[in-house]
Amino acid sequence: MSDTATLMDSYTEMTELLLPNDTNNLGRALGGAVLHWMDICGAIAAMRFSNHQCVTASMDHVDFISPIDLGEVAIVEAFVFDTGRTSIDVKVDVRAEDPRKGEERETTTSFFTFVALDDDGTPTEVPDLDCPSQNQQALRDAAREQRREQLTAVAEKIEASGE
């Protein structure tokens, strides 16, 4: 195993056409379908990064920013932005594209943590994240900051509710 892998080694993009089977009664994407696509895309990014099978350990708060309508294309992007000893943090974003108009908009975002497994199914060490270009460094730093802000906001909501 290599001691390092780059953010771009993990970069993954998938596209899905929103068909009736994945819509609700309003003709919009079911949240569960979107989460399914995000989990798959994130897992592929983690596997590309680590060269190991990876399993989902957690998913942070999910923001559904805008709906995806029937007939639109969902573009799911994922990349590794941080690592632990056996864990891999992945940012996953979804955009909707209206292919007839050529317009795109942000729809969903979240952060996933995956664990790399060896051939026996035991957690195994992952490479360190290397960001050799300024663009990769900026993506990593923005993802880390966005996650930090999101976790702080969730903690503040919990504290304010008295739970």
Topology:
Layout: E1 4-6, H1 7-10, E2 12-17, H2 31-50, E3 53-59, E4 63-64, E5 73-83, E6 87-98, E7 103-117, E8 128-130, H3 134-161
GO molecular function: long-chain fatty acyl-CoA hydrolase activity
Region (Disordered): 123-163
Domain HotDog ACOT-type: 8-120
Q: What can you tell me about this protein's structure?
A:
InterPro entries: Cytosol_ACT, HOTDOG_ACOT, HotDog_dom_sf, Thioestr_dom. Keywords: Hydrolase. It comes from Halorussus gelatinilyticus. Strands 2, 3, 4, 5, 6 and 7 form a 6-stranded antiparallel β-sheet that branches. A two-stranded parallel sheet has the order 1-8. A hairpin with a 3-residue loop joins strand 5 and strand 6. The model has no long low-confidence stretch (mean pLDDT 95). Helix content is 32%, strand content 36%. It contains 3 helices and 8 strands. The longest helix is centred in the C-terminal third of the chain and has 28 residues. The protein has one domain: Thiol Ester Dehydrase, Chain A. With 163 residues, the chain is α+β, with helices and mostly antiparallel strands.
